[in-house]
Amino acid sequence: MDLHTFLLAFATFILTGTINSSNAEIFGNQTVRDILIKNRCLCPCGPSTLDSWKSFLIPFSEGTWFEAISYCNEMGMSIVQIRNKHDSKELQDWLNGQEYEQGESFWIGANDLARAGIHRWGLTNKQVKFEEWATGEPNGANIRGEIEHCVQLVTDTMKWNDAVCSKKLKFICERFVQ
Ligand SMILES: [Ca+2]
Q1: By the 8 A CB rule, do 154 and 105 touch?
Q2: Residues lining ligand 1 (ion), CB within 5 A?
Q3: What's the whole-model pTM score?
Q4: Distance 137 CA to ligand 1 centre (A)
């Protein structure tokens, strides 16, 4: 399946909750449906109050945005969401204690795969409200025929940029701690 076909299937799935069986091959051995059945909470599960706290993980390997979604899920986690200033500060504080290359970028959950220009978190219908875009972003640029639909966090500024989802980047998973 080429990327365009995949994106169409993916967007259709998000919008309608259905997926054509011929388009079911998504993440290695898993389909989006498998992922949803295994762990219905692709958004962070658990409390969403400002008092809650989360654990984060930066897996060792890089992946496309889709691989990031799948990997986090396999770890019982979700790709990170930054829903408000509290989330942003919490993540930044954690990143300050991590080792990574200066200026390195990480995939976060925001994407506009379902509808260009309308960013959502992960595979949920939760629309991005709090935003920390870099100047001039999101620009939905066309990079060699692929439109930028997935969002990376640039660590030197903590600002966001939309990038092509097939790009291989490190990524941040999160899980609410009970
Ligand atoms: Ca961009």
Answers
A1: yes
A2: 137, 139, 148, 161-162
A3: 0.73
A4: 5
Token pair, residue 174, equals: 């999160």
For residues 59-78, one letter each, b for 16 or more C-beta atoms within 10 angstroms of the residue's C-beta and e for the rest, the string is beeebbbbbbbbbbbbeebb
Phi then psi for residue 83, to 5 deg, are -90, -15
How many independent structural domains does the chain possess? Answer: 1
For 40-99, the pLDDT digits (tens) are 444 444 444 445 578 899 998 999 999 999 999 999 899 999 999 999 999 999 999 998
Give 102-112 pLDDT, tens digit per residue: 889 999 999 99
- The CATH number for 141's domain is 3.10.100.10
3-state secondary structure of 154: strand
Range of the domain at 91: 3-177
